[in-house]
Write a structure and sequence with these properties.
- The structure is a single chain.
- The chain has helices at residues 2-26, 37-42, 50-70, 77-158, 166-197, 210-227, 246-262, 321-331; strands at 206-208, 231-236, 241-244, 269-277, 281-288, 335-341, 345-355.
- The protein is α+β, with helices and mostly antiparallel strands and 357 residues long.
- Strands 1, 2, 3, 4, 5, 6 and 7 form a seven-stranded mixed β-sheet that branches.
- The longest helix has 82 residues, at 77-158.
- The radius of gyration is 37 Å and the shape is elongated.
Length: 357
């Protein structure tokens, strides 16, 4: 934008100089021949820096002097000389005024920019502090809920409540075990995230057949979908191998599946599988017919601790899952993405280059 404006103004200044010079030479302007160059210096108002104004003033002065020697009125030496001298004086006074106004304008622009930057920093600090408060509130909820269940049911059993009946006892022990697993997952997520952030991930990248990873995920997927009454549609298999760490690949798929169950509708459905895409890549996807993601929140999905409208909603999570998935995928040279329609569902996917031996 600045370059375009400068170019136009530069052309205008050059035209003014040429026209003035032609007039100066062709008319008997000995007395006032240099004055029009002031107009050229005035154009400096639209140039970006003070240096441009000085250059215009120098050009104006040089043309004024050249015009004096070449003009037909050069014979009236003293009158012409005095007026040419006055013209040069006017050119430089104008240049100084324009430069000073430019300096003030630049200071104003700088002050305005500093104010905008300060506002941006304050806004960022505010939203970081809001994200931190949300995170602490979510964390304390996510830790306390399973911890209270463990303590409560373990104390009940210790006091003999429900200890005599086998079914009651097993139910309590199941809750204790699943709460323990929940805490374990939470701590794994936090540790994974800090490792990813510190760039200290241990990856074991090798040729992998995704179908094998799918088989390995199946029991977890079945347990997740059945306990939430979500129907699960078969796997689209592929015999193509990709280059990835099988353990991390499984972690990403389980994360996608767990989200598609958590953010689904009652009696909803999910589907997952893989297929080849152009450029020798294999896409692994998890599709749900769930709640979808609002447009204005889409860019926050992969940033840590952001829980798009789910804080305090009763849906478990601390907003780290997708941030970890993104880092893991990228560390394995893959890409991650999703499509979503609010109220209709989302499809999360990862893509990796295929491997042929
Ligand atoms: P968490 O599930 O612990 O909140 P994630 O990082 O896995 O954290 O997901 C971040 C946010 O993205 C979630 O809080 C949720 O708002 C949104 N989200 C993720 N997956 C889905 C999905 N399949 N459908 C709708 N929203 C989703």
């Amino acid at each position: 934008m600045t370059i375009n404006v400068s170019r136009q103004i530069f052309t205008l200044a050059a035209l003014t100089a040429i026209l003035t010079f032609i007039l100066d030479l062709s008319l008997p302007l000995g007395v006032a021949g240099g004055i029009p160059y002031v107009a050229m210096v005035l154009l400096g108002i639209w140039f970006p820096t003070k240096r441009h104004v000085i250059v215009l003033a120098i050009i104006g002065s040089l043309l004024t002097i050249t015009g004096y020697f070449l003009s037909s009125a050069a014979s009236d030496i003293w009158i012409v000389f005095t007026n040419r001298f006055l013209s040069i004086l006017m050119i430089w006074i104008t240049a100084i005024i324009v430069s000073l106004s430019k300096e003030t304008e630049n200071k104003l622009i700088l002050a305005r920019k500093e104010a905008v930057d300060a506002l941006e920093v304050a806004k960022r600090a505010n939203s970081a502090s809001q994200a931190k408060s949300d995170f602490l509130a979510t964390m304390s909820h996510e830790i306390r809920t399973p911890l209270n269940a463990i303590i409560g049911f373990a104390e009940a059993l210790e006091m003999g409540i429900g200890a005599d009946n086998k079914d009651d006892r097993n139910e309590r022990l199941n809750i204790i075990a699943s709460s323990g697993r929940q805490l374990n997952n939470l701590i794994s997520d936090i540790l994974d995230f800090s490792k990813v952030e510190a760039g200290k991930l241990d990856l074991n990248i090798q040729p992998v057949l995704p179908s094998n990873v799918f088989e390995h995920c199946l029991p977890t997927i079945q347990q997740l979908t059945e306990s939430n009454n979500i129907s699960f549609q078969g796997i689209k298999k592929s015999n193509t191998q990709i280059f990835a760490d099988p353990v991390r690949l499984e972690q990403i798929i389980i994360n996608f599946i767990s989200n598609s169950v958590k953010y689904n509708k009652p009696d909803g459905s999910i589907e997952f599988g893989c297929y080849l895409v152009p450029n020798n890549h294999l896409r692994i996807y998890v599709k749900d017919a769930g709640i979808g993601i609002p447009k204005e929140k889409e860019e926050l999905i992969f940033s840590p601790f952001d829980r798009i409208n789910h804080i305090g909603s009763g849906v478990g999570g601390i907003g780290l899952g997708l941030a970890i998935c993104k880092k893991l995928t990228e560390a394995m040279n893959g890409t991650i993405g999703y499509e979503t329609t609010l109220g209709k569902g989302s499809t999360f996917w990862i893509e990796f280059p295929t491997y042929s031996s």
